[in-house]
Design goal:
By secondary structure, the chain is mainly alpha-helical. It is 73% helix and 2% strand. It contains 14 helices and two strands. The protein has a two-stranded antiparallel sheet. A hairpin with a 5-residue loop joins strand 1 and strand 2. Helix 3 packs parallel to helix 8 and helix 9 runs antiparallel to helix 10. The radius of gyration is 24 Å and the shape is globular. The two termini are 43 Å apart.
């Protein structure tokens, strides 16, 4: 009993000593994460006018209104396709690009710096450039396709739901590649060269060395890149709003753009708050499942 009491007191003393150091971080987390989330949940249970006036409690009425939206099923399906497609394509392309940038070749520094450009530029600016490049009347990309004979006239890539959605996926991959590439590249550079050399000595091919030696060592880096990309892509309003915002209806909407339309077009602030809570719950569940399945912190045997 004495030793147990001593350990408890020692633990409390350690916590008190650490409080001045972790206290500011906890306050910051509470201010920028906990409070907004709590306020969002509270708002979703209120009856708000189109001008934001609180008319009293609404219970779960806002959530019932949300599920009364007939297009919600297709919007959720679009969200799954949007997140899975962008994250998977980004990871595959970034893994290959990181492997290339890990080699020693003339001009490697310049190439590495060039890859940062889409990441450094504004997402809205980059997306707007793509939007006007694909304009059927004045877009340079459409003009090129017409000049080389692939099209008879400019095609409205951003004027119809399915093509616009595919264009948005392409833009999202383009702006996500720099961060993902550098994250995987950092993981590659942390792997001891002796591991690859041992594979060579044992007669393993380049693919076998990558599949069974390099890839398992990249699990933590890939996990970080995946989680950050899921969060960014799931909440990526600028790309979808610029590319698909002019399209009427819900043919290219995800849960994020649906929330925006509920606020801006329908002026249903309370229903939009309920949609935000659903969005938050979905992304938490997705990340929890991913971490549970992938186990990024699990020890990898070299």
């Amino acid at each position: 009993m004495g030793s147990t009491g001593t350990r408890v007191l020692s633990g409390k003393n350690s916590t008190l000593r650490a409080a001045p150091w972790i206290g500011p971080s906890l306050v910051l987390i509470a201010a920028i994460v906990a409070f907004p989330v709590g306020y969002m949940v509270w708002t979703s249970t209120r009856d708000l006018s189109a001008y934001g006036q609180d008319r009293g409690p609404a219970g779960l009425a806002n959530y019932r209104n949300l599920f009364d939206i007939s297009e919600l099923g297709s919007v959720l399906a679009h969200t799954v396709v949007w997140v899975v497609s962008v994250v998977l394509i980004t990871l595959v392309l970034s893994a290959g690009l990181a492997q290339f940038l890990n080699k020693d070749f003339p001009g490697r520094t310049a190439v590495r710096m060039a890859i940062l450009v889409p990441w450094a530029a504004s997402v809205v600016m980059t997306t707007t450039i793509f939007y006007y490049m694909l304009d059927p009347d004045v877009g340079i990309a459409n003009r090129f396709l017409v000049d080389i004979g692939l099209l008879d006239r400019g095609y409205g890539f951003t004027k119809q739901p399915t093509p616009a959605f595919l264009v948005a996926i392409g833009v999202a991959v383009f702006v996500s590649i720099p961060f993902t590439t550098y994250t995987i590249l950092a993981g590659l550079q942390s792997i001891p060269a002796e591991i690859d050399e041992a594979g060579r000595v044992d007669g393993a091919s380049a693919w076998q060395r990558y599949r069974y030696l390099t890839l398992p060592q990249l699990r933590p880096a890939i996990a970080v890149a995946t989680i950050i990309n899921i969060i960014n892509v799931f909440n990526s309003l600028p790309i979808l709003q610029v590319i698909t915002g002019s399209i009427a209806g819900f043919g290219a909407d995800t849960t994020t753009t649906l929330t925006f339309k509920l606020i801006r077009q329908n002026q249903q602030l309370d229903t939009a708050a309920a949609m935000s809570v659903l969005n938050f719950a979905l992304i938490v569940v997705i990340i929890a499942i991913y971490v549970k399945v992938i186990k990024p912190t699990q020890q990898v045997d070299a």
